[in-house]
Amino acid sequence: MSLKDRRDWLHRFGRLLGEHVDELCSLVSSEIGKPEWEVLSTELMPLAASIKWHRRSFRGILRPRSLRGGAIWQFSQRFRLHRAPLGTVGIIATWNYPVQLLGIQLVQAITAGNRVIVKPSEHAPRSQVRLLELAREAGLDEDRLRWTEATREAGARLLEEPLDHVIFTGSTEVGRKVARTCADRLISSTLELSGRDSALVLADADPRLAARSIWSAVVMNAGQTCMAPRRVLVAREACEVFVAELDRLVSSASPVRMVRQEEVERCRMLLEEAARSGGRVLGSGREVHDDPRTLFPTAVVECPAAVELARGTHFGPVVAVIPCDGFDAMLSLHAACEQKLATSVYTRSRSAMERLGPVFGSGVVTINDTVVPTGHPAVPITGQGESGWGASRGREGLLRLTRTVVVSRTGAFMRLSTDEPGERVQEFLRRMMRKGPRRG
Predict the structure, then answer these.
(1) Which of 105, 138, 301, 430 has its CA 20 to 30 A from that of 62?
(2) pTM above the 0.90 mark?
(3) Are 108 and 83 in contact (CB under 8 A)?
């Protein structure tokens, strides 16, 4: 596909997405239980913004660039760096944001010029297949875009296809298996695995604002968000007001329906363990038992740092609140977590936290907000270690789906001689090397 063809496809895909808003909202809601307003605000609107951003930006990102700064002996050579498609990209789609995540990954793969094969999630097959149908209707033939059955077995079969790159979004456990298979076949991959991040509320923060923003992220998508905080580390000076506001929010929360029953059971088990260890469960006694996949969102305050809930190995609308004596204590507890994607910090010292951003170990640091800023279409999501590798979204995610081709051109005149130079020239070059580089 030429650059113009890709831009035209983005335009048509964005228009079709707008025309089928109601249909997609209804499909996602019926499959995973997400309220239609949440489908619109957390799935379709971010995808539409990403399509618009790629239409405006991708040609500038992918255009050929001159390489400057060559050595003196390369005076007759010119270099151009080009971006070429990888070839065929396999996408193993996830279910928790079935339209947004798959849609953005598809947009980046096609915009980079690749062919795409998708394995839809078994939890959201109708939503994702409909999205793929719209993408094809916008101007992709079966050679450019096709998909498999929405089964676990189909994911393993997809990895046997002649692929050039694999994008997987899901758990660390399955991500390891995908990585081994790709490594055996020398296929590159992007692994967007889960995070178990922290929200830090410093002593100078607005504790009410922090409670509202953090709680919104905890309950978003029924707690099934990889970048949502699993623990809140609160300075003791801000703890009383923070907990009071959080208690009010928990008390007014409605039950949510999760996709996987085993995660509901795990959340309940971790809540019981935290309570036995001395934590206080806010809004306790409101459990819903008529639906095994329904849970009341809650928080455990004065949560011991050693319990499993504080480690964040769950995937649901439950958060541990841990009082801390000072920033160093917060940083120590945060660093003990193996998986980091998006850390949020609440403080009035915004410039200080911006400078300290790299120390948190996550790819995104949000100051005085949680999760919401990551919806910016130019923000890359980058995991490391148990949270995966490679970038998705933004400039870095688009470049990840291309390879570099460097073309050099040597002029016909004033070429460097291939013969051995005379002794005087060799001695001159030796003196130049001994002097070393100039300053500046």
Answers:
(1) 138
(2) yes
(3) no
